[in-house]
Structure formats: structure tokens, C-alpha cells
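Supplementary Methods, section 5.1.

A reviewer requested that the exact input to the structure prediction be made available. We therefore reproduce it here, unchanged from the version used in the analyses.
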Amino acid sequence: MVIAAFCKTGMKMTKPLQRMGIGILAICLLAPTTGVTGQTNSAQAVRVGLVSNEWQRLLMVSRIELALLELPAHFKQGLDQAKSQGLPISPEVEVALKAAADEVFGAAALQGAALSHLEASLSPSQLRDWLAFYQSPLGQKMAAADERAASPDFLRSVMDRAPRLMETVSRDTGRLALLQSWLDATGAVEQSTNMALHSQLALEWGLVSTLPRTAGMPTFDELKSYINERRFVVKAHLAQLALLHSAAAYQDFSNEDIRQMLQRANSPAGQALYVNFNRKMHRTLEALVEKVGLTAGRRLASHPT
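The structure derived from this sequence is encoded cell-by-cell as follows.
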């Protein structure tokens, strides 16, 4: 178990969890507003038409809502991935962890937080500016590309084609610079790194919390500090993956399209959404990570094996 490795080797992580820390939630690369969903664009449009609250409308058209709805699924995907790579975990603990993810990352709580953070980050005029953008041809094109590129199949395709994609991207230094500037302006790599580390911490703390407390067990803060020591490695990996991912996602966009996206990202409205809003959501998710473990432990205690 992870906790055994922790106690015996000074928090040495198992290889399955090391890989999961980089892989899980890495599909949220392009921006804070991408998510994996089974909804079609037409179904999304119908739902948008039924929403009267403009803040809620922005959550939907920007795909923020979809990303939040998928958080439990990403957690479970990471757990399944770790299991497939050799992580020993009992069925009872697995059930408790997955149920805890559903409870803690439930749509109602996260959507409420997201709405509150949007209102605190954007002015009414910036809200209207973003809604108008998503009704424009470029806004609709970007939303469709982001949604398509957020699928696990798309990410796997990018990773399979990585050497070829890097060779292609490297030939056009001007476009490469535009894409890198876009990633910098949106804070995409930092956000992806935060999400990967959050998910890894949630899973490891969840596993620790389902075990009886004994001497030498790590505290939440100790485990968090240890996992954060890998931030540089994780961020370096995701930085390269994000560049390839954006190149593939926006391959049909002209350089002028990307310049316009970059200009918007660097505008006050862009920074309010991409940076200010996401910093607030980062703090919310960070607080919920500890709760996942506590909830899993409570569930397991109420249904002892």
C-alpha cells in the first residue's frame, strides 16, 4: 500500500501513483474551460437557451460547467489507472473512495462555488463581453475545438503522435511562439499542474484515510508537501504536452485566429476569467481535496469489512 511505502521509505511513492500524478486530469490542458462530456453541441445549445441567468450561461458556453461535472469521473479514472498499473486496493476501499469523490465533487457544490467566483472575478461588462465572444464565429469555433480536444481519445492521439507533432510545430517558429504565448496568457500549464497534483493528493490522502491511524502515518500537510515536491517535474511534462495538445486542437485555426485569441486572453476580461477566476477555483478544489479522504474514511468506518 501507499502508506506502507510512505512509512518505510520516507514518503516514497509507488510507481503507479507517480504516473497517475502526471496523467490524471491532464486532459484539462487547453484552458480552464475545457471538459470531457458526452453532450452534443446541439444539446448544449438547447440547455443554454433555457438558462436565464447570465453568469450560469457563461459557465455553460465556456465549458466550465462541463469540466466541473467531470471531476468525479477523472478521479475514478485515475484510481482505475493506478489499479491497472499494480496499486493494491481492496474493493471496499475502492467503493468508499469513488463514493467520496461523487459526494465531495458533486455538481451542486462546485457549480455554486464557480458562480460565486465568476461574479467575484468578472465585472458585469466583462461578463457581457465574454458572452458576446462566444456568440461570434471565432468564439463558437474555439468552443467546439476545445470540447473536441478535451476527450481522452484526442489526448491519446496527441501522445501517440507526439514526435511527429513536435517536428511539425517546430518548423513554424512564428506559430509556435503564438501557441506558447496563448498557453502563458491563459495559465493553462499552471492550472493543469494544479489539477494533476490535486487529484494525486486526493487519491493518496483518500487511501491513507481509509487505514487505521498508527504511529508514523503522514498528516495531510505532510503528504501535500511531499507531493508538491514533484511540481517542477509534473509541470515540465505538462508544458510540453500542452504545447502539442494546443497545436493539434487548433490546427485548423489561422495564425490570425490565434492572435485574436491571445489578444483576448491578455485583455482585462481574459485575465479575469483565465487567471483570477481560476485562482479562486484552485483554492476551492484545494480545500475539497482533504475532504475526499475524510469522507472516504467515514464511509469505510460506517461499513466495516
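Residues 1-51 have pLDDT under 50 and may be disordered. These observations are discussed further in the main text.
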